[in-house]
Structure formats: C-alpha cells, structure tokens
TrEMBL record:
GO terms for biological process: proteolysis. Signal peptide: none annotated. The keyword Iron does not apply. Residues 32-87 form the Metalloprotease TldD/E N-terminal domain. This is Metalloprotease TldD. The lineage of its organism: Bacteria, Pseudomonadati, Pseudomonadota, Gammaproteobacteria, Enterobacterales. The gene is tldD. NCBIfam families: PRK10735.1 (NF008006). Pfam families: PmbA_TldD_1st, PmbA_TldD_2nd, PmbA_TldD_3rd. Its EC number is 3.4.-.-. InterPro entries: Metalloprtase-TldD/E_C, Metalloprtase-TldD/E_cen_dom, Metalloprtase-TldD/E_N, Peptidase_U62_metallo, TldD, TldD/PmbA_N, TldD/PmbA_sf. The keyword Nuclease does not apply. It comes from Buchnera aphidicola.
C-alpha cells in the first residue's frame, strides 16, 4: 500500500530513508516526513432543496526537524523528490547550533485495524447522498405539523497518510474514512420558534447508517426523530432557575465537560509550559475516587479513533485519572522527549500544513456501579442535564461555562418538566471532586465531535455514564 501511494509521486521508500538519514547527518535530534492525501465532500439541504455541494481535494507533504526544543518546518502541495530534498536542506539550515539529544530509535509496529478503509466518497453515489438528505427532511416533517424547517448536512472524508521519521525503523501508513451527518430541526407554535439538534458519524461505512438496529430503526431515522423531539421539548420548556444545585449529567455527549475542562489541561504542551492547572499534580488526588478517565484511540469506528497517530505511533488506551489519582498526560513525540517521557500516541495534526500537537482522541469517564434511576431518585431538588449545546473553558484555571440543549428539573427524585437557557458554571477540578455517584450506563457520543486547538480542527469523541455532581452553579433567567 505504501509503495502504491508513493508511486504516483515517483518517490520510493528508499528515497524517504535517504532523506531521514540526511537529516541525521545534518546533526538534528529528530526529523519526520508526513505525506497526506485528503478528499472531502459536503452536501447541505435546507428548505427542502440542496443548497450546497462542495468537493475538496488536497495533497502535500510536511517536513519537520527538531534540535533541543527548537523545531523547523516546511510544507508543500507540490510533491516531488526535488522539492523534498530542497525542503529538507532548508529546514535543517534554520536549526540552532547546540548540543544534540537524539530521539531514541524505536519500531512502532501498528497492529490496529479499527475501521474500514473504504472510500466513503466513492462508495455511495451522489444521487443516493441527495436522496438520504431529502429522506431526512421528509421524515422530520412527518413527525409533527409544527416542523417548519430542516437543515441537514452530510460530510464525507477520505484521508491517506504515510509517515517516515528518524526514530522509527519502519515507514507508517493509514487510511482514514469519516462520515458525519448533522440534523437541525426548527419548530414553531404561536410565533415561538425553537431548534433541535442531532446526528452522528464515525469511521464507518454508509451501510452502518442504513441498517435497522435493535429498535428497528436506522441511525438516520433515530437521529431525525431525536432532533424533532428535542425541538418540541424546548418549545414547551420553562425558563431555568439560577442557583447552586445538585446536577445530574446524562450519559454520552455531556462527557464533553471532561474533554474541555480536564482533557485539554492534560495535554503535554500545556503541562510542559506549566500553563495547566494539572502541571504539578501527577500522583495526586484530583477527582472523586469514583472517577477513572481514559483517552482511548482504539475504539472501533469512533470519530477520534486512529490506527496510528500523525507521528506514526500506534493508537493506545491511556489511563489519565485512575480512581481519582492523576496518572499520566497526553504526549506527542516532541513534548514527551523534552519531558523525558514517551509518546502516548496523541500526536495529531489537521493536515500536512500544520505541526503535530498533543491532542485527545476518544476521551471518556469509565462506568461505575450506580443505576440511572437511583441517581435521579437521590436528588431532592436539582437539574438533570441530558445534552450540551456549547461552552467555554479556561485551560489555565479549569473554569468552564456550558449551555444545555436539553435539561429538566428534578424534584423529590422525579423528573418533572423541561427547562431551557440553563448554564452550568464551575471548575473542572471542583466538579471532578464533587462527583458522588457514577452510573453503570457508559455511552460514547454519537459522533459529531470536532476539537479546535491552535487553529487546527480534528475529529474526537467523548463519553461518560450518568453522573451526579453534589453541587454546581446554575445560571438561568428565573
């Protein structure tokens, strides 16, 4: 597969090995060459018609060298051997003259096979893709007469990468498909409009979205009905109270709170620069003993799953917090080397035009032993937050603000009525230490997660079981 990929550029594996040896001859500590071919197709339906169809094709190569803590980087979308040789000479010439600390040689053997290598763009015709979006529109409007608009997006991606590095005895290769479907439904009653959102995706085949599941529905049907259901619930929802209440977070997407308020603070670059609240807390209690948080890129078919990361390191199951104790950080090769650690398979980049950074993959809280109903019944008066719509986090302090898209009032252990415009305000550390119950119903989100950092967007997944937070500040309007 590697030879076939390189052949179209008239480049061989021996050429890559030769360039890597040239880097070492020029006294660098580390160097890598990252080839990428990427296709992306997007279809948008609004007001019953296809409003937009776009196709992107991009290919190129990024060349990086490292000496001490300095990096030199160049990229081009004109992939020829001459350009690679010139780029290698150029980036090496920019490095400082300091003592060497060469990255140790390793053999990163990729044994993962976590997703199909089918090209999601070519495996399903344009006619079928348009029909799929129109069927979403038809089904949504069929659910309720108050549905006035449906906005749905189908995104298909195909990515192929080849990576050679001075610390790896083998050249790595991966093919990464990705399909995402997002659905927004608008409902109206008495001149009041509300929206509901749903959807999902992953490194899957189209057939995975169209097969009947246990509830005798396809994923497309389920997500469409969910968007309508959430919009209608919001239409009848009361304004959220404000105050300091117990909060129950539902399974799945609410795990975004751990991703944002905890996960980013455990990324190696923030730790090395001491800008994270977790910088000096390794081995210390940072959460309730009920909490074990992992970053796991080995889940089958998930948004954030990778056979190898963007530095050629196989995807791994990393325990970050175990029974409340901070165990490890997320590392790419550069930050791991500087911190005398090892890569955790979390070096990720949006494309060949960017440097890799330590990033999350699939980050989630492991299941506990409590039943969902027992968690609800333990609350005398509080909030049940089923889903979030957005939020902000300060990495340095861990402080966050999240808005709910579906939430309810709990009173005397019963879910009473839906509320809207509820905002959760707090600190990641305080929340983790305030978790008093963890459910046995772990769920990974449906697959719409996109994470942004330093201008780079990558696909991720999050998850958690139902959890109870003892007290949390709620911002509302009543």
């Amino acid at each position: 597969m590697i030879d076939i990929f390189l052949k179209k550029y008239s480049i061989t594996k021996n050429n890559i090995y030769s360039l890597l040896n040239d880097m070492l001859d020029k006294k660098v500590d580390f160097g890598d060459i990252y080839f990428q071919l990427r296709e992306k197709e997007v279809w948008v339906l609004e007001k019953k018609i296809i409003k937009k169809g776009t196709y992107l094709f991009d290919e190129g190569v990024g060349i990086r060298v490292v000496k001490n803590i300095s990096s030199s980087f160049s990229y081009t979308n004109s992939v020829t051997l001459d350009n690679l040789v010139n780029a290698t000479n150029t980036v090496c010439s920019f490095l400082p003259t300091v003592d060497r600390n060469i990255f140790k040689k390793k053999s990163y053997l990729n044994m993962n096979c976590l997703y199909t290598q089918c090209n999601s763009i070519k495996s399903f015709s344009i006619k079928k893709k348009i029909y799929l979006l129109k069927s979403i529109d038809f089904l949504a409007r069929k659910q309720d007469f108050r549905v006035v608009d449906v906005y749905s997006t189908l995104t298909c991606e195909y990515e192929e990468i080849v990576i050679g590095s001075t610390d790896n005895n083998v050249i790595s290769h991966d093919i990464r498909p990705l399909i995402n479907i997002s659905i927004q439904v608008t409902v109206e009653q008495n001149n009041n409009r509300e929206k509901g959102y749903s959807g999902g995706g992953g490194r899957l085949r189209f057939s995975d979205f169209l097969e009947k599941k246990n509830n005798n529905e396809t994923l497309i049907e389920f997500w469409t009905k969910e968007a309508v259901r959430i919009a209608l619930i919001t239409l009848s929802a009361k304004s959220s109270p404000s105050g300091y209440f117990p909060v129950v977070l539902g399974p799945g997407w609410p795990g975004i709170l751990f991703h944002e308020a905890v996960g980013h603070g455990l990324e190696g670059d923030f730790i090395r620069k001491k800008t994270s609240i977790f910088s000096k807390k390794i081995g210390k209690q940072v959460a309730s003993s009920l909490c074990t948080i992992v970053d796991d890129s080995t889940l089958i078919g998930c948004n954030g799953s990778v056979n190898i990361d963007d530095e050629g390191v196989p995807g791994q199951y990393n325990i970050l917090v175990q029974k409340g104790i901070l165990k490890s950080f997320l590392q790419d090769k550069l930050n791991a080397h500087i911190m005398d650690s090892k890569s955790t398979g979390n070096g990720r980049r949006e494309s060949y035009a960017y440097l890799p950074l330590p990033r999350m993959t699939n980050t989630y809280l492991l299941a506990g032993t409590d039943k969902h109903i027992d968690i609800i019944e333990s609350v005398e008066y509080g909030i049940y937050a089923v889903n979030f719509s957005g939020g902000e986090v300060d990495i340095t302090s861990g402080n966050f603000v999240f808005s709910t898209s579906e939430a309810y009032i709990i009173k005397n252990g019963k879910i009473l009525y839906p509320i809207k415009e509820a905002t959760l305000i707090g600190s990641g550390l305080q929340v983790m230490q305030s978790i008093t119950m963890v459910g046995n119903d772990l769920s990974i989100d449906s697959g719409l997660g996109i994470c942004s950092k330093n201008g780079q967007d990558i696909s991720v997944s999050v998850g958690q079981p139902t959890i109870k937070i003892n007290k949390l500040t709620i911002g509302g309007v009543s």
